[in-house]
Amino acid sequence: MEIQIENNVDTILVKLQQNLKTKMEDATMAVRNKSLEVLSGTRSGRTYVIPGTKVTYTASAPGEPPAVQTGRLRQSIATEISNDGMVGKVGTTLDYGQELEQGRSNMAPRPWLKPSFEQSENEVIKIFTADYDL
Predict the structure, then answer these.
(1) What is the pLDDT of residue 83?
(2) Among candidates 37, 34, 38, 23, which has minimal Cα distance to 88?
């Protein structure tokens, strides 16, 4: 009679890495989806007529997420996973995305990304604490 003991650490580490990458992808998508939600809806700022049209537009008030005028910001929100799934990013490459988030000398902040992270925190925690398929 013979008993063989095998070390499966390498296999487990590969599966763990795959699980972590999948969870990071799910977490960044959760934040991205929340960003789209945060950028939706009506705002309570000034209402004005868009020049050359009869269309009215209601801007965001200071402290509110920016109002959607063209949809470019919403369309630009992307996710990126790097470092084998250990780092996840959500954001935009549009310069005015950061200006809206932080404000500028002539405009109070219209935060949208930080609230998205804050509002999706419980979902992200749930994603990373769910069982791992090893």
Answers:
(1) 93
(2) 23
